[in-house]
Amino acid sequence: MLWNWRGSGTTRWIRCPDVMRFGYKSGDLKLIGTQILDGSPAFQYRFTSHNIQINRTINIWVGRDDHLPRKTEMLTDDLQMKTNWQEMTSCTFGVNVQIEQPLPPGN
């Protein structure tokens, strides 16, 4: 899934974090509030799901001014396997990335 972002008069498509691909329906995401995330204002949304096998909470932070995904966090409790795990993804935009050529083998 790609995120459609319109900024500076152009349209750009960016790859979305995995938890944004779950196909949420209208009303699934609840606005928790706003907070400062890495120095920028962001909206925090939450999705919760509970059934006999899994309890899951997903938090999604979206930039208030640019509407880009900033961070996702998924907390899952597997009630049958009696395990739990947490997944987090952070997104950064506007950073100039440089990739250097790897050293030859043996160096």
The class by helix and strand makeup works out as: mainly beta
> What separation lies between the terminal Cα atoms?
40 Å
Give the helix proportion (percent range). Answer: under 10%
Average pLDDT metric: 81
**What's the number of structural domains?**
1
- The number of strands is 7
What gyration radius follows from the Cα positions, in whole Å? 18 Å
Core attributes:
five-stranded antiparallel beta sheet, mainly beta, disordered N terminus, two-stranded antiparallel sheet, 0% helix, 107 residues
Structural summary, described in words:
The protein is mostly beta strands. It has one domain (2-90). It contains no helices and 7 strands. It has strands at residues 2-7, 10-15, 30-37, 40-50, 54-63, 69-78, 83-90. Residues 1-5 have low confidence and may be disordered.
What's the SSE blueprint?
Blueprint: E1 2-7, E2 10-15, E3 30-37, E4 40-50, E5 54-63, E6 69-78, E7 83-90
Antiparallel strand pairs: 1-2, 3-4, 4-5, 5-6, 6-7
Précis, in short:
The protein has 107 residues and is an all-beta fold.
